């Protein structure tokens, strides 16, 4: 009888971890911060279902379009170094002419692109693998919309702008984009982060959060997606070798539109930096975030989410009825950026009056009706932030 029991136990034992994994909630982390401190409020779920490893507060995750905010901070730092002018014709940096086919005489600037008012479109795609040409991509007429001349164009969210901006930053500085962001953004804030896993050490790779779709299917960053395997997009027949990459040619290989991997405790440090005064004198308390304005407000039938936007930074809730951008439900103005891709939703939001904020991610989110990268806060996302606000209030009382 004992032998039968042991055999039965041995057969059932492997099922226990799987059952526990099925019961685990989707991986979610929320960190609250002010300009002096940060603390984790919600840390739940599994970083990897295969191993059963629980997620931790600073496990690195692909934060999707919050990466665009990091581009903008890097651009401002190059402006401070005197190497970049956001209002100069970006063609001067790229070394070839960037023009909308609908407005061939109108210069395109980094301000136009960062504010999604250059007339760019994602219809031609926005991933340009190593070995292919960024210039060729943006000369495709499908890469543009006729929504007005650059600067006056109607707001049209376009991921394609990020590779253009990142490539211009490379050309202006002579530095590879991943190394430039490390020097200008990550290292000064003592943040451990990288793009497409390039530069992340073995410890970070071991703590990677695997992204799953709502179906349970692996979407991104499973162990086979990490080094030493190739982690950047590469054209067919081209070696996965960044040593020969020439800065200023095609920074799309680093996925600047969404490829930053970072933990939420470290992302909170970037949120704190946005609250930091950037003025020259003791009396000037203008925050870094203010330099990413002004926030132009739009609301039309095509745009129901990004209704108030500056330079890679959004203002929520926008002062429009019918704009679907009320995440917190308390009518307080917040600045930041959302992220959505591969079953993940993420956010970095600061309250510039109270000088505090939240960073978060949730996984296994069903795709929106319009497909990925269309924006919008889901009911799960709103519920997560309601929990976080309640927990923060408890801790403050």
TrEMBL record:
One family from Pfam that matches here is Beta-lactamase
Organism (species): Erythrobacter sanguineus
Gene3D superfamilies the UniProt entry points to: DD-peptidase/beta-lactamase superfamily (3.40.710.10)
List the keywords (alphabetical).
Signal
Q: Where is the Beta-lactamase-related domain?
A: 26-370
Instruction: Keyword check for Signal, yes or no.
Output: yes
Name recorded for this polypeptide = CubicO group peptidase, beta-lactamase class C family
Q: Does the keyword Signal apply?
A: yes
Domain of life of the native organism = Bacteria
Q: Which residues form the signal peptide?
A: 1-20
């Amino acid at each position: 009888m004992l032998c039968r029991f042991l055999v039965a136990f041995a057969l059932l034992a492997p099922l226990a971890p799987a059952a526990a994994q099925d019961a685990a909630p989707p991986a979610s982390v929320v960190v609250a911060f002010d300009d002096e401190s940060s603390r984790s409020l919600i840390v739940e779920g599994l970083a990897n279902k295969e191993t059963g490893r629980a997620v931790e507060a600073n496990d690195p995750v692909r934060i999707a379009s919050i990466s665009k905010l990091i581009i903008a901070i890097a651009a401002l730092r190059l402006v401070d170094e005197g190497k970049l002018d956001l209002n100069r014709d970006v063609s001067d940096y790229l070394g070839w002419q960037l023009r909308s086919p609908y407005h061939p005489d109108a210069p395109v600037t980094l301000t136009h692109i960062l504010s999604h008012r250059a007339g760019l479109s994602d219809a031609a795609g926005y991933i340009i693998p190593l070995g292919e040409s960024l210039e060729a991509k943006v000369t495709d007429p499908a890469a543009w919309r006729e929504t007005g001349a650059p600067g006056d164009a109607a707001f049209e969210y376009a991921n394609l702008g990020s590779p253009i901006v990142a490539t211009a930053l490379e050309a202006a500085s002579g530095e590879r984009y991943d190394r430039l962001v490390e020097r200008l953004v990550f290292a000064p804030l003592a943040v451990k982060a990288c793009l497409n896993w390039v530069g992340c050490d073995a410890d970070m790779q071991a703590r990677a959060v695997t992204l799953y779709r709502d179906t349970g299917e692996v979407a991104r960053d499973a162990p086979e997606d990490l080094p030493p395997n190739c982690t950047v997009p590469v054209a067919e027949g081209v070696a996965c070798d960044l040593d020969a990459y020439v800065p200023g040619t095609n920074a799309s290989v680093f996925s600047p539109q969404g490829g930053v991997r970072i933990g939420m405790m470290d992302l909170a440090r970037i949120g704190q930096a946005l609250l930091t005064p950037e003025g020259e004198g003791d009396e000037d308390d203008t925050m870094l975030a203010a330099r990413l304005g002004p926030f132009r407000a739009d609301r039309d039938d095509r745009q129901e989410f990004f209704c108030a936007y500056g330079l890679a930074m959004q203002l929520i809730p926008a002062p429009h009825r019918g704009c679907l951008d009320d995440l917190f439900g308390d009518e307080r103005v917040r600045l930041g950026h959302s992220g959505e891709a591969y079953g993940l939703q993420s956010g970095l939001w600061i309250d510039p009056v109270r000088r505090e904020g939240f960073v978060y991610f949730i996984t296994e989110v069903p795709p929106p009706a319009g497909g990925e990268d269309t924006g919008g806060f889901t009911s799960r996302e709103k519920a997560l932030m309601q929990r976080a606000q309640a927990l923060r209030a408890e801790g403050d009382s």
